[in-house]
Write a structure and sequence with these properties.
It contains 7 helices and 49 strands. It is mainly beta and 646 residues long. It has 6 domains: 94 residues, no CATH class; 98 residues, no CATH class; 92 residues, no CATH class; 92 residues; 96 residues, no CATH class; 97 residues, no CATH class.
């Protein structure tokens, strides 16, 4: 935890007015499997519900079953259904407890795959308000500290009442939408007493849906950040926004610029009947597809039309569907959007990088990483095998670092089966005993992923690394092109190829002779990085974080050479490439062995089985130590680049 964050935290461990909170502390999309047995199933998502309060929204992805909404105001086991008018009910085997780091559920969740969305109460983000209805104008207090962006109200007592939604973009305080139906905007001055909410209150009038006499009412109140969010290390970042857009009826639809990359979006058409569509990046809200759920129906994830509705961008999201649900020509739409986290530079490498093999877990090729994986490289090691590359932004598709092949379809379970899991079992490796897996999480200053479309003209591409990338890998996903590599110590006038052994090559068409900055990187006109045919591209951006990662270079000595990365317990992962002459991209890791003796190594640039016939690398607490003479790692007078993770 940063010093500033520690100072801002109060005695209860929470921050006032949203200060210093990360979006990961107030919102979570968590995927889990029902255990189909009686007894608690604990979901650890890092959200303090017992101490701070909030809402957990759960939906089966496999079954046509209702959404279950549980909040701390009403207590565990008390649920509402967003897809029905039903009154509050008690489910003793539903959500059974709100915990300091998540929640627990019981048998009612069977063996289905589930998604849960957790909203923690916090200023400038979310609040829950309960009251007894008066059937008269009533001004109710909330704790957002800012004007709400959306309010969702339900009469918990009366099963004949609709969920009613106020949204800042509906065009008036006499207008609302019904959450449990597809209907367009409805008008009634009594819903919200025709009164705009303020930073401290919202109003309800003489209407049974929002203020039924002596009925028990609940409101979910969401903030709208407009350059006044108080999140992140410097307490100055927005994490939640509400707005609207007008459709154009094209697959090249509107692009919504929020100033941040989204992880969760809900969209509703307001001028005609259409569903409330919920998208999140954990369930393949990506550049290749959209798995959607509807707040107003019990449909399963596979029971809905899973056409490609939208895709995330580095600054928001873009509509890529011409259909009426999200993009009817001249149709009007509202949205709710939540920012991707984390917002802080990592301090612990184990929270953002995982290396694992079959012997480290009981599931063979199902790897428990401890974090949601954004990028993964995996391969068999004892036999020749491709080096497979998955990324959350390209859905279930994959690339190969060892070649030029285009993007191919893989199993949907790899990154979207469960949270904190990389699943290379079903439909991929099966129960192999010789697989190695490397997983990265995106985080400021450390690692970022950007998907973009080529234009064929010199251009810049926005990214969210927050610092100038020190190394980049770029691949044309739609054409047989090499992986192009930028490295700070090679420079922007030259490039390397991850998929080849070639030495550095001088060329201006890859990076337009322009070094990347903290907000953009530049690509030239070459098809490998910027196809004129509008091909999709993926870029992986790496940087140095003190004590976590190191991007650097050295000159070989042909004798023992200690590489100081600023680590305290040595490097778990080391990638080395000779740059002034041909040689492979050579990879070492501590799971297979960085020891005082022969060390197994793989090449990212070809499919060879690992080699364990020489001692090229030894442990060194500050980084890694190179031993002896080897053209791969330490030839006298040769130039090398490296990337290491603690």
């Amino acid at each position: 935890m940063s010093t500033k964050k520690k100072l801002l935290l109060g005695a209860a461990g929470s921050a006032a007015a949203g200060e210093a909170l990360d979006v990961d502390e107030v919102f979570s999309t968590y995927l889990y499997e029902g255990n189909n047995t009686f007894g608690p199933h604990t979901i650890t998502n890092g959200i303090d519900l017992s101490g701070e309060g909030g809402l957990v929204w759960i939906k089966s992805r496999d079954s046509a079953s209702s959404h279950g909404l549980y909040d701390t105001e009403r207590g565990a086991t008390k649920y509402l259904q967003s897809n029905a008018k039903s009154a509050e009910a008690t489910l003793s085997l539903g959500l059974t407890s709100f915990n300091s780091n998540g929640f627990s559920v019981d048998y009612s969740h069977y063996a289905d795959s589930h998604v849960s969305w957790t909203f923690r109460k916090a200023p400038k983000f979310f609040d829950v308000v309960s009251w007894t209805g008066t059937n008269a104008t009533n001004n109710l207090n909330h704790n957002l500290g800012s004007v709400p962006g959306m309010i969702i109200i339900k009469n918990r007592t009366d099963a004949s009442t609709s969920w009613i939604v106020w949204h800042r973009s509906l065009g008036g305080n006499d207008k609302g939408l019904k959450l449990e139906t597809t209907t367009s905007t409805v008008t009634n001055t009594n819903y919200f007493a025709n009164t705009a909410p303020t930073s401290t209150t919202f109003s309800v009038g003489a209407h049974n849906w929002t203020n039924g006499l002596n009925d028990q009412m609940i409101a979910y109140v969401f903030a709208h950040n407009n350059n006044d969010g108080e999140f992140g290390p410097d307490s100055d970042q927005d994490v939640i926004k509400f707005g609207s857009y007008t459709g154009n009826g094209s697959t090249d639809g509107p692009e919504i610029n929020l100033g941040f990359e989204v992880q969760w979006v809900m969209v509703k058409r307001t001028d005609a009947a259409n569903d409330w569509i919920i998208l999140d990046v954990m369930r393949d809200f990506s550049t290749t597809g959209t798995k959607q759920l509807f707040a107003n129906t019990s449909d399963s994830e596979t029971g809905t039309d899973t056409g490609h509705r939208a895709r995330p961008t580095s600054t928001g999201f873009k509509i890529v569907d011409s259909r009426g649900a999200v993009n009817n020509s001249s149709g009007t739409y509202i949205y709710m959007a939540i920012r991707r986290g984390p917002l802080a530079v990592p301090e612990d490498a184990t929270k953002v990088f995982d290396v694992n093999n079959y012997s480290s877990n009981s599931n063979s090729t199902v790897f428990n990483t401890g974090f949601d994986v954004d990028m993964n490289i995996n391969s068999e090691v004892t036999s020749g095998s491709a080096r497979y590359n998955f990324a959350r932004l390209i859905g279930s598709n994959y690339l190969n670092t060892d070649g030029t092949t285009v993007e191919n379809g893989g199993p949907a379970t790899v990154l979207s089966s469960q949270s904190n899991i990389i699943d290379l079992n079903a439909g991929w490796w099966g129960a192999q005993s010789n697989v190695i897996s490397y997983s990265w999480r995106r985080a400021p200053g450390y690692f970022d992923v950007v998907a973009y479309t080529g234009t064929g003209s010199n251009r810049t591409v926005s990214h969210n690394l927050g610092v100038a990338p020190e190394m980049m890998w770029i691949k044309n996903r739609d054409a047989s092109e090499d992986w192009i590599v930028y490295h700070k110590d090679v420079g922007a006038t030259k490039y390397l190829m991850l998929s080849r052994t070639n030495a550095e090559t001088t060329n201006s068409t890859r990076f337009n002779d322009t070094a990347p900055t903290a907000s953009v990187f530049t690509v030239g006109t070459d098809q490998s990085v910027n196809s004129p045919s509008g091909h999709g591209h993926i870029a992986y951006l790496f940087a140095t974080v003190a004590g976590v990662s190191k991007v650097g270079s050295y000159t070989g000595t042909g004798s023992t050479l200690n590489i100081d990365c600023g680590f305290s317990s040595g490097a778990r992962f080391v990638l080395i490439k000779r740059t002034n002459d041909t040689n492979e991209w050579t990879l070492f890791d501590t799971v297979r062995g960085i020891v005082a003796g022969n060390d197994p190594y793989l090449y990212l640039s070809n499919t060879d089985a690992e080699v364990n016939a020489a001692d090229f690398i030894d442990p060194y607490s500050a980084g890694f130590s190179l031993t002896g003479v080897s053209s791969l790692t330490n030839d006298n007078g040769d130039s090398y680049i490296f990337y290491a993770i603690a």
